[in-house]
Amino acid sequence: MEIDEIDRRILRELRQDGRLSNTKLAEKVGLSTTPCWNRVRALEDGGMIEGYTALLSQTALGYPDTVIIEVTLDRHDDDIFDKFGQALAELPEVMEAYLLTGEYDYLIKVAVAGTAGYEEFLRRKLYKLPGLRHSRSTFVLRCLKRTYSVAP
Predict the structure, then answer these.
(1) Got the DSSP string for 67-98?
(2) CATH code 3.40.50.1110 for 65-139
(3) Model-level pTM?
């Protein structure tokens, strides 16, 4: 799907505020409401917009700390990747998880409540996942940039 500058403006506005009404969005991008609505639907149907979500505050929910964990598995076969990946996806503390190339197999971003919360996550959850051989953790001091999508 090819997009033009108006589509790009729509994507940028929705990235900033996914709850914009169609009327407000149309006003911001310089369209009337019907063409704006049609473009948003085309962007959704074309896969440019995958969905809409609410951004939750880790701190307000009691998980103010972020830890980045690098994980190495004990084997590299489809079965262990499937089992580990499925188990990882079920952990509510896991905010993001990536299968990697290089020294580590996974990069995992988790939300915890301090070092005690992290120790509990490690001992009761992560270390019980199938196939884990080694992990290395780093506490995030401060987020310098956070975005959830790329707007062209």
Answers:
(1) EEEEEEES--SHHHHHHHHHHHHT-TTEEEEE
(2) no
(3) 0.85
